Amino acid sequence: MELKLATFVLVPALALAACSERGVVRVGVDPHNFPMEFRQDDNVMAGFDLDLMRAIGDAAGFKVEFVEGSWPGLFAQGEIAGLLSTLGSSTDAVCSTALITSERKVKYSVSEPYLDAGQLLAVNWDSPAAGLDDLTGSTVGVLMGSAGADIVHRTFNARRDQMRLYSSLDQALDDLAERRVGGVVAGRVELAQAFSGNELFKAGLRMTGPVLTQEAELGIYVQSGNDALLAKINEGLATIKASGRYGELLDRWALR
Fold first, then answer.
1. Which of 45, 77, 195, 228 is most buried, by the most CB atoms less than 10 A from its CB?
2. Is pLDDT at 8 greater than 80 in this prediction?
3. What phi and psi values does residue 169 have, to the nearest 5 degrees?
4. What is the pTM (predicted TM-score) of this model?
5. Cβ-based burial of 44 (10 A; exposed 0-12, middle 13-18, buried ≥19)
6. Percent of the chain with pLDDT over 70
């Protein structure tokens, strides 16, 4: 995972000057993670991260140009060949469901978190449950081998009769919609994928309670030392959160 500094082709000051002259910030994305970033049927890239960066740019006074790249595997074995290694050369920023990690923060500069992608509880819209502790008398569905399974197991003091294992999130949510379980625990992005693809889930189910896992926050990365661009991104993010635009985007992509 170690990234050779030699892959940073431009020094931060030159990189910022170049994007400032064009009035455009080039943002790297890997469009293979619906609903965060993906290609529509017309092959145009879309998704929450793209809408987010456009809104940040509008608020902070810059235009956005998206540059397609790829992650070399899930978040990064051999990151030297992936999206983050393009910072300072073909991209000015990366916004592509990128987890904030201590290792990455050493190598790059990263924005304030823009989304917590950790495990959440899904319930029926009319459920009074506001968190997992409210379901101690119910059965909760989880995916086999997931972080959610560990959380539910700990919460219910190893009472496995209160945890139903599934190999498919859609199957778990089907059982939730039919009230065979009182809740389902899964990752925010995975729940959003399921809600967006199924009108029954979108209309009848909701996410609730606090995020149940740590260290699952997503951030926007820039080349280390590019403080001016990072400040603009953070300024724009704060502005759209305060204006309500950020919440609109969460709702559009079923992320809350």
1. 195
2. no
3. -65, -40
4. 0.85
5. exposed
6. 86
The residue with greater pLDDT, 213 or 111, is 111
- From the CB of residue 241, how many other CB atoms can be counted at a distance below 10 Å? 14
Residue 112 has pLDDT above 90, yes or no: yes
- For the chain, give every domain's residue range: 5-116+217-252, 119-208
Residues 6+ away with beta carbon under 8 Å from 109: 221, 222, 223, 224, 225, 226, 227, 230
Distance between CA 58 and CA 219 in Å, rounded? 18
The tens digit of pLDDT for each residue in 168-191 reads 999 999 999 999 999 999 999 999
Distance CA 218, CA 240 (A): 17
CATH number of 5-116+217-252: 3.40.190.10
Q: What are phi and psi of 233, to 5 degrees?
A: -65, -45
Angle between helices 169-177 and 188-196 (to 10 degrees): 70
User: Which residues, 6+ apart, have CB-to-CB distance to 137 below 8 Å?
Assistant: 182
**CATH T-level fold of 119-208:** D-Maltodextrin-Binding Protein; domain 2 (3.40.190)
Distance of alpha carbon 159 from alpha carbon 131, whole angstroms: 18
142 pLDDT band (50/70/90 cuts)? very high
Residue 11: pLDDT over 60: no
User: Which of residues 208 and 156 earns the better pLDDT score?
Assistant: 208
Cα three-residue angle 50-110-234, rounded to 5 degrees: 65
